[in-house]
Design a protein that fits this description.
single chain, 751 residues, mainly alpha, Rossmann fold, Helicase, Ruva Protein, domain 3, Serine Threonine Protein Phosphatase 5, Tetratricopeptide repeat, ATP-binding, DNA-binding, HTH_Fis
């Protein structure tokens, strides 16, 4: 049992059950650390008590314990409460005010009901946890957060992540350690000790018979420890005698159980209603039901509700005003999306959904708001954004039986993109095939183009570049399709994506002239005269990618810088990460290896991986491995690529499998393991041949030929390299092909 004398308000921590001992052991182990902590458990189970126990056993128990209930403070005030504000930051800010992040010092900030924290504030909390700094509202100075965050919730945060009402990255940042506080139903053997503990705190100490304790142990406690404590408090005041037997206990227990059970059931049903503002949803539900029972008579409905007729009329007018406001917000959000101002569109569309009532007559507006919000969130946070996925799924649910196949096909595109970015490539291919069939049945050119591009994208990452090019040809999308800015249902430039994957697939297949043509066409689309910021980012991504493969550093540097700055300016976080990776490739070519690695790691881990970039793992690992080799760090290179190969093989991501194998072999060569390097280069060559990847085949064969030349086997080297180059057109060669041809001449063999 915890020693209650040491912890003040922690005197309520009482128990000896196995579940409680497990909780105690976990608290003792995690309390001395500085990591964030998530305390979960049903309402009334003692989550705040556990948080105070963690603070009392922490490294700084003398520091403040500051608690904030995220659901008890109005949304427009909670930001100021957390971060503080500078003088003049907003109307009424007549003086500087420190927020809880500052007041807590090196102590513990307890965020109770973290699931109620507004979505708009969640990125700011995430940033505090990641950087340990924060900036008060209206201040230009960043302050250091020295404390520890302990969050608590009775809600299922993972379910909220899937629904899009809680950020996935914030969840995993908070859940470094998770403490599950058991409900009273999981620790019934502790009830007698808890009863005695609460009884001793009454104005007149109570004593319970063995039968009364047994009855309390068998009772249902939906309110858990809090409900038990409240019952003992009532007994302390109202019981006729301090000696409590079953007869004296039963009336209190029956009344408490019946009232509490009924109220809890009703409250739980209301909390399960859809919508963020549960109070408003419950109010609308009551008004609608009262009008239904009274046949639309407002006076009769008001009587049922226990209010005056004018109250009902005011609420109905307010509802109409909210619907009109929602329509206005939706139109403003649509205009922002069409102008690629996705970050500005997000709050408008969120407010629109908050304003819209949950009624059948506004389902079309709900569908459009969810669709546009999904597009905006995906554009800003990447296609792996949990909230964007939830919006697509919500739109599909709302739109079934209401919207046409075109709109539903658009939602399916969003779901496909999530499968792709999570490397569920088999499922992504099946979804793309469904999209193709739906688009053919629909007869929509835009939907068909999107479906073809979804299939091409998936095939490329599966390593089937020949089929990817064939799919582009079947869809009429080679050389960008119909030309110009060809926008699909998602509102972005399909032609830029088609050119990108045409160039990438052609490069892998050794059709270097075709790949260079795709690069040149993309370069024409990246200028500042491109009016659509997101489409320009897509073109910059494709051009930088191909420039990197062609080792065209003259173009790569400016393209990468433009992509990074454009994405930062417009909030395209995912594409900012891609720009940083390519910028690292350019800096590395100049010999500045440490700075290059920093850019690549920050771009991939902080911006791409967090926002949907897992798909690019093998490409960035290959490029970073090349960088480590040039920096003279072959051991680090081998470890990096071994991990990358494991992931690629696990998820069947084969686009750059041959390159990973060849670069890893070179790392072993640099460690003077010539036999191991030769074996791995032969494996890389076999893999490239099996996949039909000509560029990887040339790279592996060139390195293997150099190794054979070094180990005095020039004839074998020349024969192997000649076979590897057979059938490869020498026009517009890639740098890898040029190196192979030079080596062939050096070996005394004509190409």
């Amino acid at each position: 049992m915890f020693d209650p004398s040491s912890f003040g308000t922690m005197a309520e921590i009482v128990g000896e059950s196995p579940a409680f001992r497990c909780l105690q052991s976990l608290v003792e182990r995690v309390a001395p650390t500085d990591h964030p902590l998530l305390v979960c458990g049903p309402t009334g189970s003692g989550k705040e008590v556990v948080a105070r126990q963690v603070h009392a056993r922490s490294r700084s128990p003398e520091q403040p314990f500051v608690d904030l209930n995220c659901g008890a403070i109005p949304e427009n005030l909670i930001e100021s409460e957390l971060f503080g504000h500078a003088r003049g930051a907003f109307t009424g800010a007549t003086s500087q005010r420190p927020g809880y992040f500052q007041l807590v010092g090196r102590g513990t900030l307890f965020l109770d009901e973290i699931g109620e924290l507004p979505l708009a504030l969640q990125p700011r909390l995430l940033r505090v946890l990641e950087t340990r700094t924060f900036r008060p509202i209206g201040s230009s100075e960043s302050l250091r957060f020295e404390g520890r965050v302990v969050a608590a919730t009775h809600r299922d945060l993972l379910a909220m992540v899937r629904e899009g009402s809680f950020r996935e990255d914030l969840y995993y940042r908070l859940a470094v350690f998770v403490i599950e506080v058991p409900g009273l139903d999981q620790r019934r053997e502790d009830i007698p000790a808890l009863v005695r503990h609460f009884a001793a705190r009454q104005p007149r100490p109570l004593s319970f018979s063995a039968e009364a304790l047994e009855r309390l142990t068998r009772a249902a406690w939906p309110g858990h420890v809090r409900q038990l404590r409240n019952l003992i408090d009532r007994l302390g005041v109202l019981a006729l005698s301090a000696q409590i037997g079953v007869e004296a206990l039963e009336p209190f227990l029956a009344a408490d159980g019946a009232a509490r059970a009924g109220q809890d059931s009703l409250a739980d049903a209301l909390l399960a209603l859809e919508g963020d503002d549960k109070l408003l949803v419950a109010e609308n539900l009551l008004i609608d039901r009262a009008l239904q029972r009274s046949g639309g008579n407002k006076s009769a409905a008001a009587q049922l509700l226990g209010v005056g007729r004018k109250v009902v009329e005011r609420r109905l007018k307010s509802r109409e005003a909210r619907s009109h406001e929602a329509e206005t917000l939706l139109e403003e959000g649509r205009q922002r999306v069409e102008a690629a101002e996705f970050r500005q569109a997000i709050p408008l569309l969120r407010r629109c959904l908050e304003k819209l009532p949950r009624r059948d007559d506004v389902r079309a507006l709900q569908f459009e708001a969810y669709r546009l919000l999904g597009v905006s969130l995906r554009s800003v946070n990447g296609w792996l954004c949990a909230e964007a996925c939830a919006c697509y799924e919500a739109a599909l649910k709302v739109g079934e039986g209401l919207c046409g196949s075109t709109e539903l096909a658009s939602m399916q595109f969003g779901i496909w993109s999530t499968q792709l970015m999570t490397l569920e490539l088999g499922r992504a291919r099946a979804t793309a095939q469904d999209m193709l069939q739906r688009a053919r049945d629909l007869g929509s050119p835009a939907a068909l183009d999107e479906a073809h591009l979804a299939m091409v994208n998936t095939l490329f990452w599966l390593g089937d570049c020949a089929e990817a090019l064939a799919c582009l040809a079947r869809g009429g999308l080679l050389q960008g399709g119909r030309g110009g800015e060809h926008n699909g249902l998602q509102g972005f430039d399909l032609s830029a994506l088609a050119l990108t994957f045409e160039g990438l697939a052609a490069f892998q297949l050794g059709a270097f002239a075709q790949a260079r043509q795709a690069l040149q066409r993309l370069l024409l689309r990246v200028g500042e005269d491109n009016p659509h910021a997101f489409n320009r980012a897509l073109a910059l991504q494709g051009a930088a990618w191909l420039a990197c493969l062609f080792e065209d550093m003259e173009h790569l540097g400016p393209l990468a810088t433009d992509l990074e700055s454009l994405s930062e300016a417009h909030g395209f976080t995912f594409y900012r990460g891609i720009g940083q990776v390519f910028r690292g490739c350019h800096i590395g070519s100049l010999g500045t290896f440490d700075e290059a690695e920093r850019f690549m790691l920050e771009g991939y881990r902080q911006h791409m991986l967090s926002h949907g970039g897992r798909l690019f793992h093998s490409f960035q690992a290959w490029q970073r491995g090349e960088l480590l080799l040039r920096a003279g760090r072959p051991d680090d290179c081998e470890r990096l690529l071994a991990d990358a190969l494991d992931m690629a093989l696990e998820h069947q991501e084969r686009a750059y499998l041959g390159e990973l194998l060849a670069t890893k072999a070179r790392a072993r060569w640099a460690q003077d393991d010539l036999d191991g390097a030769e074996q791995e280069l032969r494996s890389a060559l076999s893999t490239a041949l099996a996949l039909g990847s000509v560029s990887a085949r040339i790279a592996a064969a060139t390195q293997l030929a150099r190794l054979l030349q070094q180990t005095r086997r020039p004839e074998q080297a020349a024969e192997l390299l000649s076979r590897a180059l057979r059938g490869v057109a020498p026009d517009a060669p890639s740098p890898g092909l040029a190196r192979a041809l030079r080596l062939l001449e050096e070996l005394g063999t004509r190409p």
